[in-house]
Amino acid sequence: MNKIFHFIVAVLLSSSALANDSSLPYDAWRLGFSAPNYMEVWIETADVVDIQGQVYRRAMSGTSAIQTPPNNSGNPKGWPKRPGWGKGKYVTGADLPKRIYVRWQSLVEPQTYQVAIDIPESTREIMRRKEKVFCAFDGKLITDYREALVVGLAPGGIAKVWVLGPCLPPIEVTRVKAEIDPRGPYEGKSGGEYDSLSDASKAYIDKFGVPYGSW
Fold first, then answer.
1. Could you tell me the residue ranges of all domains in the chain?
2. What tens digit of pLDDT does each residue of 138-155 get?
3. N or C: which end of the chain has fewer CB within 10 A?
4. How many C-alpha atoms does 6 have within 13 Å on its Cβ side?
């Protein structure tokens, strides 16, 4: 058993809460995922531990938000200055996040990664803080919260996290490097077989390769 597995088991067995953390000031916060152009991923699971010690398994799974423009016209290098909300959903019933565990397949390599992302208190403070901002959606000044966490997943096991709101710009909060899951895809239950790339992604990789080091 590897160290990430032991770490996650310890977290899941813990039910202690941090008494000085307050509840979120809205109904639910959102967890989303994105990937650079053509760098397709498959999220096997994204499990959340909130500040009360409650565990929300498979808070998200499946494909992330991604663009695969035809004719190799997209650029996968680096991250956008204003990342979107990604593909995801609201973590209903959860308090603010303390840790997010993600296991995913990087299909362009291919490789399976796993990581536990600690969400610092400074990020939760940002998520609690309401701000006044002019919102183009409403055409007026509103009070808004950064109620969404977006995790960008890139080849090499890179995971970058932003916090943002419907009308508030994103703030980068952390960047971590995952470790390889030696069990392979689907916890070793697929015989080492990965899902197939789309034709657009395969065409880009065949011609240009993977831009490691740009994320």
1. 25-208
2. 778 888 999 999 999 999
3. N
4. 3
pTM above 0.85, yes or no: yes
> CB–CB of 24/96 below 8 Å?
yes
The SS3 assignment for 191 reads coil
Structure tokens at 83: 């990342």
DSSP structure string for 49-118: EETTS-EEEEEEEEEPB----GGG----SS--SS----EEEE-TT--SEEEEEEEEEETTTTEEEEEEEE
Q: For 4-49, what is each residue's pLDDT tens digit?
A: 544 444 444 444 334 344 478 999 999 999 999 999 999 999 999 9
